[in-house]
Amino acid sequence: MKDTPVMELRGATKSFPGVRALNDVSVEVRRHEVLGLIGENGAGKSTLLKVLCGLQRLDSGSLLLRGSEAVFQGVADANRNGVAMVFQEQSLLENITVAENVLLGNEGPSLRCGLYRWRDLNRRAQKYLDLVGGSLRAATPTGRLPFAKRQMVEVAKALASGERGHHEPVILLDEPTSVLEHAEMETLFSIVRELRERASVVFVSHRMEEVLAICDRVYVMRDGGVAGECRPADVTTDQLFSMMVGQDLGAGYYHESDQRPAQSRPRLELGDLTGETFHDVSLTIAHGEVVSLMGVQESGREDVARAVFGAVPVRSGTITLDGRRIRPRSPAHAVRAGIGYVPAERKVDGAVLGMDVRENLTLAHPGQVSRGPLLDPARERHTVGEWIEDLRVRTPSQHTPMRDLSGGNQQKVVLAKWLLDPELRVLVLDTPTRGLDVGAKADVYALIRRLAARGLAVLLLADTLDEGIAMSHRVLTMKDGRITGEFTSGAGARPQRTDVLERMV
Amino acid sequence: MATTSQTPPEARTGTEGTSRFRRLHEAGAAPFFVLAALVVAVGAYDSSFFRAASLISLLEQAAPLTLLAIGEALVVLTGRIDLSNAGLASLAGVVLAHGLGSWGPAAVALVVVGAALCGTLIGVIHTTTQVPSFIITLGFLGMFAGLSLSASRADSILVTDGYGSIEWIFFRIFGLPISYLLVLVAALALMAWMKALPIGRRVRAIGLNERAAAYSGIRTRGIVIAVFTASAALAGLAAVFQVARLQSAGATTSDALLLPAIAAVIVGGTAISGGIGGVGRTLCGALVIALLRVGLDLVGINAAFQPILYGAIVIMAIAATADRRRGATVA
Amino acid sequence: MKPTLAPAGHHDPRATGRGADEPARPGRAALGSHTFPTPALSVLALIALVMSFVNPSFLSPGNLGAVAEQSAVPAVLAVGLTFVILMGGIDLSLEGTMAAASLTTALLVANDRNTIDLGLWAIAAGCAVGALIGLVAGAAVGLLRVPSFIVTIGTWQIGLGVAQLLFGDTPPRVTDESFRALADHKTAGLPGIVWIALLVVAAGWTLQRYTRFGRYAYVIGGSEETALLSGIPVRAYRAAAFVLAGATAGLAAAMATARSGVGDVGIGTGLLFTTIAGVVIGGTFLTGGRGGVLHSLVGVVVMVAIANAMVLAGVSSYIQQTVQGVVVVTAASLTLWRARRRLRVIK
Amino acid sequence: AVDSGSAAGDSGRCEPSDVTLVQSGRGLENEYYVAVNAGARAFAKAHHARHYQWIASNGDSSKQLSQIQSILAKGGKCVVLNVDPNESSVLPAIVKAVDKSGAWLVTQWNRPDGLAPESESPHWVAHMSVDGVPQGYETAKALFTSMGGKGSIVALQGILDNAPAQERFRGLKKALKEYPGIKLLGDQTAGWDRTKAQNVTQTYLTKYGHRIGGVWAASDSMGLGALGAVKNAGRKGKVKIASVDGLAEVVRAVRDPSTGYVATTPSTGAAQGALGMSIGYAAATGRIDPDKEPRGHRSFYLKPLPIITRANASSAPSPTDTTRLDFKNPWSQNGRPIK
Ligand SMILES: Nc1ncnc2c1ncn2[C@@H]1O[C@H](COP(=O)(O)OP(=O)(O)OP(=O)(O)O)[C@@H](O)[C@H]1O
Ligand SMILES: Nc1ncnc2c1ncn2[C@@H]1O[C@H](COP(=O)(O)OP(=O)(O)OP(=O)(O)O)[C@@H](O)[C@H]1O
Ligand SMILES: [Mg+2]
Ligand SMILES: [Mg+2]
């Protein structure tokens, strides 16, 4: 009995239109272990977890729970069987209290005769909140919590959901650390270690050190399959990395050899830019330069990017573009000044999923496919076709709705939307590779290089430290809304990760 | 008001088998089938309905309603609603009836432009205060009602002088009603406009995902103001048609067209959450509603049963024409 | 008409950055949060202030009683409607539902048209008719997945039709004096319907705060997806909200019938405007998830107070509607002003 | 002013058996229209009309016009329409449609100034109305007398853009001039609506308190609303009420001295339904030639009837009573012509 895995996937396959997210995957989760899951973006980690927690059903293959085959009817059903998940995207409701969120759908004993007993509810929720630490109070309205605290609430919620069943729970954590500060991360680790005593944990992270530090066993995923299994004691980060990306990509991953030196002429200059979440931010990006802005979640770097694009108000300071001062009061102004912006939330802010590829591609600069004021369908077909070919967008046709494209291809279309404009001067990229698979990611990197070579100034908010360091000419770090450091990062002379990290936290 | 949410991924897979049906549905064919079914149903009870006179009369009756519905459709395409356009049509009618005598044909232009300006005002207030359009236009509905009552001095106005300059709208040419031909021309112009100019996509993009539209550099605010302006201008035009048709104007003449116009938009298959639909199918939706308004009388249904049937048919028609592509459109 | 606020997963730091671990300052918290209808109360205070100059009799006990009495019926309507709106839907059918319920009630108490006399059970029957019409709407929204906006335009007509069928030749006149006394009889200076309305509001508030239905209304309005993920039967709750709205409309119709003494097809005329405007002015978002029964109550009282103030101030009948429209727009702007933000999507 | 191209002058009159009778009004949830329908139906029955139809406009002018146009498109010349226009502004279009199709139209109550059957079309056979001025005047006088000729009143108006509402109010004003001891404290519209009238009256009662000695309402339903408010204020019987229309409930209230309800007018609904039909029918079947009828037969007020007070309330007929209607002579109830 001791050796029966708590959960097991056998030959699991799951496809989405255009993507095989899981391809004949067999994994097992053993009792009282912390199982690590690593892999590039889009390797299928989240999909695997979603299958485990009943959110998605397998196309083929089987799911075994405590030795017997199981089909979950949904997340709530999985919860009842002791499986709970913290989602990659947060799923807390802002308009109810923390306690309600923690026990959502699980209020059971706190209802008597159909009536909520708030004190009891709060007490029960507080139990889980105390477990995760962070001095969270059950009665607080969730909307008042900062982002990182919500992540802790998510964990508390998963704990609560996992304990609905009569078995030892299985807790699935999908990148719980990506938005946590150092201290909170430590707390989380101690929770996870403590959880191991009475539960099984699956832990997904992009940070290999973390995985090595906390996990008992690690699966490496690549392109929907399991590329390897190992014990942290036996491997190094480098070994893990090469298992993750595959041998062939190795050096060429960031296309570092394509990096051209930037010109000295400044293209975009920010002078003491101050907004609600950032202060006195000054930076200069030259023609053809890629500058990456690094920082943790609340560092204010996203708002700096949005301010350049006119999406958040600026209190004081200047934005100068090619020597001319601009005051973007809305994205529309910024676009007309020659700025493009790829938002982090692709599905919410980047693409109009209900429209087709062609319409999305020409949405920002319809002038490029028009004759006079009229859209020119022939020219549009031609131009869009060229871009699709150029960026290797995999789409059945130009009229395929964006919704049906894979994430990477959606991202390419969103990028192409800006590239359509030959006058584009500045491109602001907010984690442009988030959610992209390996190939797409490499394509995007190559594209950024090409754009820079064209003289474009690129402000990059990289997803990972490595990406930021590898892709840029210069790395700037931000903390608490201020610039805290600057590193030059030319080809062959990259700054140390630890140095950069030091300025960020 | 309509909330759309992504269906959980599993719920989507079942719908692939019926793809041809779906493609027809997505192309906006459903409202035409509903219209055809209704025409056949009324005709089956009363074959004289198929006579040219009856059908042409139906088109003529549908003209002002169609104008209001088209304007409403533009607003609904952005995911908003205009509850004030029918009230504005009443007000514009009163003003026109007063103005025709002294201004002649110029009054027509003045009224349409004036109405358009009212729409601009609504749009500006809505986008500036960020109060939902439902409430802003509800408030304006009250204002327009009050103003038209004052402007008409609570009396209906018979148009005598200057009636000639609009009377021709309800003449017929080669047996075809000029009024409906004009509506068709306006609709076709709008359709061409929406198709050939970037604005059509921008309007739909705002309805589908306003944030993404804004992040694409679209002046969402300007476009929202523009659709309210267009809706109001069409309301002004509808007022011209009403005065031409009635030869007089009263303070509340067009008020009752509000809900039928909204129903026409939705029966036409435009999603109330925005982004899906358009002008062409609204023409069809307006005919469905116009037919329903008189069809039950033609068939000879007892007056008391008529509202029940009307309500039930509208719900069923919309269930048939609703486009649920974007997941569960509820609320 | 969906004001998508910051989408799930995307968090505006300004909305969340402050007050990580606020020390409990209940007063401030209540004023600054969405849990208390502060802006609507300020609007009410403003009206009172203006009227204390224009016509001080506005604040006389007699007139306040009149405002309370006139608020009673729309307040009951607002309670049910609030839950529909909290879930992100809307119910436009109130007037039709009230018509059907009014005639049902009048025909089932002692009346001059038939010999049926169910006594106070007639009220229950009125509620049941309302609930049934609500069920039609709820089922259509839940099962057919048709937007409630249009479904309830349909059920409005259905309710009117049912009422017309029941009407016959003359309005059924209620002869049961105890039924009428329910509305008129004064206890502690306030007529019965005010007490009934207060009871309904209290019940609604309890429902909102202490039951699954009420709490899940916020969850569904906050994010239907999260609700589905948590295994909440969203469609059933949605349908239940329409049934509740129908039932309260039925009760409101019974109250109005008791007040006027006849079953009347036009019993709800004009109440849709008052109620919806009241709910929104109170601070319940049409997108759902925010607001509550108390908010709606205050909003409805604002609407009634405006109508009352205009009569007292002697505003000409000709411009009353205009003034009311201006007030609705202004009040809604005041209530929602602090939520304004660049690139905020409000439909 | 209505466009010609009229079908007038064609000799083809209809056989009685071919005639379709159509009565159009707001809706049967309203007692007045129930009476109109009863009168029209009684006429149809008495003449074995092939077809009688009631169509409801539900307060929607466009719908009313559409319904009429559709029926005309279908039924042609032998349609007799007795129409209460939803508001006067739809009337020109209705006349035009009838004129073009050669059918026969009689209208009630509302018409825009400057439009009259005698000058428009033979197919618009007649327009009849009930003179609101004497109604308002007589009921107001009864009210003032019951108050002893002095004191203050408030007035509830009907929908403001409605001719009878305005006429009745003019009647009230006329009476006020003759009773200098009576003061009009205020007037508000309650839109013919009972609940609204109750609310407005309640507010007036708190505003003016005991100064209010009487309420005059432009319609009975509003009068009943006022009665409710007066009762709740504990002033039943002390505040006198008078209104217009002859609803059964009001007639009952007038009979009961404790209510303080002093007067109303007899219902004219059944007469308007039956007379309208009989005039249109006479024209359709060729019994009369509209062009040859005198002006007083084309646009006229019904003969004013004595108002109902406590003295005669017990003998007042039911509004839907059709037994006293005279179908022989369509002009039997003609009062003074409308100017
Ligand atoms: N609902 C869906 N519809 C279509 N494609 C999907 C869906 N969910 C995931 N995919 C695709 O499946 C692949 C695997 O996605 P998954 O989310 O599992 O990746 P991941 O390993 O979690 O990546 P990340 O590190 O970015 O979270 C991706 O290519 C993704 O675009
Ligand atoms: N409807 C609600 N919305 C938001 N928070 C709520 C709500 N109801 C309760 N809470 C939160 O839950 C906490 C406890 O509620 P409650 O008032 O029942 O507790 P209590 O007063 O301590 O208990 P009791 O009155 O039973 O002794 C409150 O402080 C409040 O913050
Ligand atoms: Mg993932
Ligand atoms: Mg307590």
UniProtKB/TrEMBL annotation, chain A:
Keyword Nucleotide-binding: yes
Any single Pfam family the record assigns to this protein: ABC_tran
The ABC transporter domain, residue ranges: 7-248, 262-505
GO molecular function terms attached to this record: ATP binding; ATP hydrolysis activity
Keyword check for Translocase: yes
Stretches of the chain forming a coiled coil according to its record: none
Keywords attached to this entry: ATP-binding, Cell membrane, Membrane, Nucleotide-binding, Repeat, Sugar transport, Translocase, Transport
InterPro entries documented for this protein: AAA+_ATPase, ABC_carbohydrate_import_ATPase, ABC_transporter-like_ATP-bd, ABC_transporter-like_CS, P-loop_NTPase
SMART domains with a match to the protein in the record: AAA
Descriptive protein name: Sugar ABC transporter ATP-binding protein
Lineage: Bacteria, Bacillati, Actinomycetota, Actinomycetes, Kitasatosporales
From TrEMBL, chain B:
One example GO MF annotation: transmembrane transporter activity
UniProt-annotated location(s): Cell membrane
Gene Ontology cellular component annotations, sorted alphabetically: plasma membrane
Signal peptide, first to last residue: none
Keywords: Cell inner membrane, Cell membrane, Membrane, Transmembrane, Transmembrane helix, Transport
Membrane disposition: Multi-pass membrane protein
Statement: the UniProt record of this protein carries the keyword Phosphoprotein: no
Pfam families recorded: BPD_transp_2
Transmembrane segments: 29-50, 103-124, 131-149, 169-194, 223-244, 256-276, 307-323
Descriptive protein name: ABC transporter permease
Organism: Streptomyces malaysiensis subsp. samsunensis
From TrEMBL, chain C:
Keyword tags: Cell membrane, Membrane, Transmembrane, Transmembrane helix
Subcellular location: Cell membrane
GO molecular function: transmembrane transporter activity
Membrane topology: Multi-pass membrane protein
InterPro entries attached to this UniProt entry: ABC_transp_permease
Residue stretches spanning the membrane: 40-59, 71-90, 118-142, 149-168, 188-207, 239-259, 265-286, 293-312, 318-337
Record-given protein name: ABC transporter permease
The organism of origin for this protein: Streptomyces malaysiensis subsp. samsunensis
Higher taxonomy: Bacteria, Bacillati, Actinomycetota, Actinomycetes, Kitasatosporales
